[in-house]
Amino acid sequence: MSVKIAPSLLAADFAHLAHEVGRVPNADWLHVDVMDGHFVPNLTIGPPVVQALRRVTSLPLDVHLMVEAPERWLEAFARAGADRLTIHVEATVHLDRLLRQIRELGLHPGAALNPATPVESLRYVVELVDQVLVMTVNPGFGGQPFIPGMLRKVAEVRRLLESQGSHADVVVDGGVDERTAPHLVAAGASVLVAGTSVFGDPDPAAALTRLRRTARP
Ligand code: DX5
Ligand code: ZN
C-alpha cells in the first residue's frame, strides 16, 4: 500500500490560496485545518474558504475540524465541498452519532486524537471511520516539533484497526518531515499531513516528492 501525502494549507500563503494549491499538483489530498478559537487557541478558516478551494481543485479536500460542538458544522462543510471530514474525539460526547452523520452526508468520516487521548477511545467506532488522525503535536499551530512518543500510538492505532479487520487510513499530523516520515510509516501511518515541510520549501512539489520517497515503506 503506497503512502498518501496531504499538504496542509495552514502553512501556505493565505493571500494566494489558489496559487498555493497549484504548487502541489502531486498531492494526494489537500488538508484543511479548521480552528474555532475554543477547542484550540487559534482561528483559521470556515466553509466559505472550503467552497472557494473546491472551485480551484479536484483534489480531495480533507477537512480537519478542531472545533467545539462539531455537530454544528458538518452540513456546512459537506455543502461547501469537503470530501473527508475528521472530528476530534475530545470535542463531542456523541462520537458514534456524529461519525454516522458524516457518512450519511456522503463524506468519509474520520476521528482525531489529541496527543494525550488514549487509543482505547476508538475501540467501539472502528467500523464507522475511514481514517484515524493521530495528532503528533498539540493541535492549534503549524511548525511545532514532533512528539516522539506518538510513534507508539500510531502503531497502537494500526493494531486496533487490524484487530477489527479495518483498512481505514492512519493519518499523522504535526511535525512530519523527511526525518520523521520513515518512522511514522514503519509504525503504520498511511497518510502524512505535512505543512511546514512542504509549503515552507521554495519548491513545495519537490519537497512533497522527497517526502514521498523517504516514506516508502
Ligand atoms: C495543527 C494542524 C496541522 C498543521 C501541521 O493543529 O492540525 O495540520 O498544519 O503543521 P506542520 O506540518 O507544520 O507541523
Ligand atoms: Zn490538521
TrEMBL record:
Required cofactor names: Mn(2+); Fe(2+); Zn(2+); Co(2+)
Enzyme class of the recorded protein, top EC level: isomerase
A GO molecular-function annotation: D-ribulose-phosphate 3-epimerase activity
Annotated EC: 5.1.3.1
Residues annotated as catalytic: 33 (proton acceptor), 173 (proton donor)
Entry keyword annotation includes Metal-binding: yes
Gene3D superfamilies: Aldolase class I (3.20.20.70)
Role this protein plays: Catalyzes the reversible epimerization of D-ribulose 5-phosphate to D-xylulose 5-phosphate.
Protein name: Ribulose-phosphate 3-epimerase
Provenance organism: Geochorda subterranea
Upper lineage: Bacteria, Bacillati, Bacillota, Limnochordia, Limnochordales
